[in-house]
């Protein structure tokens, strides 16, 4: 890379400061043999600055959704800079593709060029204002969710803080907490429904503008899903239904028996995670008292696994790139965002001191490790690994750290935590199918009515969900999809968790026999970034990319064996 293309720092949130660099790239004459490579490298360097600038605006906004200045700064970038960047990127992409020496580029550029061709295919100038409006709506949904609090047990609490009460041994307390949460969500459900319906309209229009039948086909292109198709997702749904649902029914039966109940309610068990009160009436698992303790113990855990992982985690701590505590106004959920220019991974989450928080932090640390492992790759396009493999990095780390949970618990508690996590895998896979199936139907039928959407949502819940008593809470169940933020901010980004979970379980199977080999496979494959196809990345970690029932059944069999061990 030409280190001198950008000679000094500039404000990459302002188009006026980006414009001269963009103009130079578009007008550059390509006369020499390697000029196109230099062009790609310089464009990558500019992209690093812009990506990081946008990332920092997003981080600032999600860390405090009630700060109007931060929200407006993010929207200003999304409204005035990103549209111009889209047009610039399309022109630059065409300049690269139209170059007569394109076919002479080394093999390292094959995936980058394939992605560029796809981006050209789907780009439409008339979609830019639609994309801007989409960002505005998603930001509004995040602000609504981030501002949700309830008064419970004499104190104003965020919804993540309320999770503690959902694992209480006291059923009356659990019910009261769950109803507080659901009632609060119902206060905003109408506006969230309106936002979602406008997003559906916008997204369908974007798809038809680009010449696609619907947004499903458009997004499979836009997300560069080169290695699997819509039918593969359907096969995944069917396989998970066949393999996982009988096991979930068994788990529900055992819990009903343990609790002495004829039917479980939503406050007895979490459909997505399987979490809830302990069947042996033990106190909820609490792996740490505060975030500082979690970070310290996690550092020790990673060092025990390998000095390499320990050093990488310590680097995160030293760079002060962690925002982990829940607070009012903070956006829900968790994420890792890699700052391309600084080469710093930022981790965001909402901790309330529960086992699921430990799992979330390990998950996001896995993403950070992935980013650090491939940070030495020269081009952004080489580092921007496919999402399906990004989630292998995070979800496998949850499983690979099982033995290390002894840093947080005594032996009995660690065993209980591992069992809870493995049961959570069995619950998550059908939930992934629930959300993915719902998205496929939504965008294949963009003109549906609210009544039709409710009917389909409930039928999908019946297919992939467990039997619960919703008799007094049917209104909330009808709009319970609103809890899944991906439906708003990351459409079609969810099946990736399922695909990755299959890879993670394979890596975990290796780890159960040979931990050193598993960690080496992890490291070697993560270093590849986006320099290989998805099947090749799986192969590099000694994994198979398959969706058939036989393959999935073999993985779930191992989960069942491990559950008996804990």
Largest sheet: spatial strand order: 3-5-4
End-to-end Cα distance: 51 Å
Number of strands: 5
Structural class: mainly alpha
Can you give the mean pLDDT? 94
Helical amount among residues, as a percent range?
55-70%
Could you give a short account of the major beta sheet?
Answer: 3 strands, mixed
Number of helices: 23
Give the uncertain stretches in residue-range form: none
* Global shape: globular
Q: Which series of helices and strands comes N to C?
A: HHHHHEEHHHHHHHEEEHHHHHHHHHHH
The Rg value, from CA coordinates, equals 24 Å
Strand content: under 5%
Topology:
Blueprint: H1 15-27, H2 35-63, H3 68-97, H4 110-122, H5 128-146, E1 149-152, E2 155-158, H6 159-162, H7 171-187, H8 189-209, H9 215-222, H10 230-259, H11 291-305, H12 307-318, E3 322-325, E4 335-339, E5 344-351, H13 355-373, H14 380-383, H15 387-400, H16 411-444, H17 450-464, H18 474-478, H19 486-489, H20 495-513, H21 515-526, H22 534-540, H23 549-565
Parallel strand pairs: 3-5
Antiparallel strand pairs: 1-2, 4-5
Helix pairs in contact: 1-2, 1-3, 2-3, 3-4, 3-5, 5-8, 8-9, 10-16, 10-23, 11-12, 12-13, 13-15, 15-20, 16-17, 16-20, 16-23, 20-21, 20-23, 21-22
Report what the structure shows.
It is a single chain. Helix 16 runs antiparallel to helix 23 (549-565). The protein has a domain at 15-123. It has helices at 15-27, 35-63, 68-97, 110-122, 128-146, 159-162, 171-187, 189-209, 215-222, 230-259, 291-305, 307-318, 355-373, 380-383, 387-400, 411-444, 450-464, 474-478, 486-489, 495-513, 515-526, 534-540, 549-565, and strands spanning 149-152, 155-158, 322-325, 335-339, 344-351. The chain is built from 23 helices and five strands. The protein has a three-stranded mixed sheet with strand order 3-5-4, sandwiched between helices. Strands 1-2 form a two-stranded antiparallel sheet. It has 566 residues and is mostly helical. The mean pLDDT is 94. 41% of the residues are buried. The radius of gyration is 24 Å and the shape is globular. The longest helix is centred in the last third of the chain and has 34 residues, at 411-444. A hairpin with a 2-residue loop joins strand 1 and strand 2.
